[in-house]
Amino acid sequence: MTQPTALQQRIQLDDRPVARRIGLVLLSTDHTSERDFARMVPGDEVGVYCNRIAFRNPTTPENLRAMEPELIVGAALILPDEPLDAICYACTAASAVLGDDAVLAALGRGKPGVPAVTPPLAVRKGLAALAAKRISILTPYLEETAAPVAAYFRAHGFTVDRLTNLGIDDDRTIARVATRSIIEASREALHEESDALFISCTALRAVEVVAVIEALAGRPVVTSNQASAWMCLRLAGIDRPISGYGRLPSLPLPN
Q: Could you identify which of 88, 137, 162, 182 might form a hypothetical disulfide with 191, taking C-beta atoms 3.0 to 4.6 angstroms apart as the criterion?
């Protein structure tokens, strides 16, 4: 057996390459979530580790539901046998269709003991942090795909004053919706009596303009990726405000 050299004997190992770790399970067709997490997550403090699972458009409830069996393996293959501080399934509509319990159970089977997040769950936590009970919802979806999202929030005690849909059935096309169009649609979607606007879908590039929309609206705006990144950061122990993405990332995670 070759003896280690003097240099090899002096090598020291850190506990981790980066102090905190977030796992992200993405759709194979997702153009947006990784980029949004990269914007919001301080890379010197937190590593974001991604895996993708198969998805075939259109974004109908049936196709979204079909991803459920992939979630366990998708989660398990993110740094196998190593712990994470949080893990998120980056699909709002699928989480609403399947239900939080089913998604969290699948993620838990893949990465046992890791705090798990779905975008609807994160949005609920965000709306609670903002004390918002009446909401308007803007989605890029078809009506049949948007309906379970609205039903999810009604079932959790929110009043949905208005539901506005852009009628797009392909998440790759959703990612191409211009930010100026997102701003314009948001202005039409917000009901005058709503406490906040929720912009649904991890594929929609709403994080890029959430602060602009919020300033124009004069009310809080919560988006799928903004809320998911915020909740993951809080679960990972990053408690300081993250600026530039609306009011929510400056708030603590409610119980």
A: 162
